[in-house]
Amino acid sequence: MKKYGRTIIVIAVLVILGLGYYHYLANKDADKDATDIAADTSEVSVLISKDIMANYPESPKDVVDLYARITKAYYDKELTDEQIEGLGRQARLMFDDELRNTQTDADFFEKLKEDISNYRSTKTRISSYVIQSATKTKYSTFKDRQYASIVLVYYIRQGDKLIDSHTKFTLRKDNDGHWKILFWELAESENDE
Hints:
The protein has 193 residues and is of the alpha+beta class. It has five helices and five strands; from the N terminus they run H-H-H-H-H-E-E-E-E-E. It has two domains: 1-49; 55-186, NTF2-like, domain 1 (Nuclear Transport Factor 2, Chain: A), CATH 3.10.450. Strands 1, 2, 3, 4 and 5 form a five-stranded antiparallel sheet that branches. A hairpin with a 5-residue loop joins strand 4 and strand 5. Helix 1 (2-49) runs parallel beside helix 3 and helix 3 (81-93) crosses helix 5. The longest helix is centred in the first third of the chain and has 48 residues, at 2-49. It starts with a helix and ends in a 7-residue tail after the last strand.
């Protein structure tokens, strides 16, 4: 009987140790996940809380860089509707009046959420982006208004595929001296030209 008693005690101790180790791993992963979630949303929080008009980007390249950061944030992680709208409001601050007036805020947010949903359904996200050197920015004047164009390359991950999307941004300087995004269009890569 003593032999079976020791065996039962050893098995009970091993079970308790196993459960203790499982509890440790379960809590460790939960803490890591909470940290990852906080880190993932920190860029979104920074972008939403940024006072863009008080610290407006100085150059066309800076405007496009901030816009690209916002765009990347749209598609990076699962966002709430409030976060999407917060990012969208920030992006629209950098739009030229002509571009902003092409649709209402409500229409813009609706189309943006639809686009984000389409990206999610195809497991697509912007993994990174690169902006053309500021020295390659092209400046022009038309009807006493200053314009600038600069190319940005989005690297889009769709499943296992990596696609590069060249986008040419055209900006116009407003009456306050701020460069605002007038429009953007797909551009040929330098290799294609």
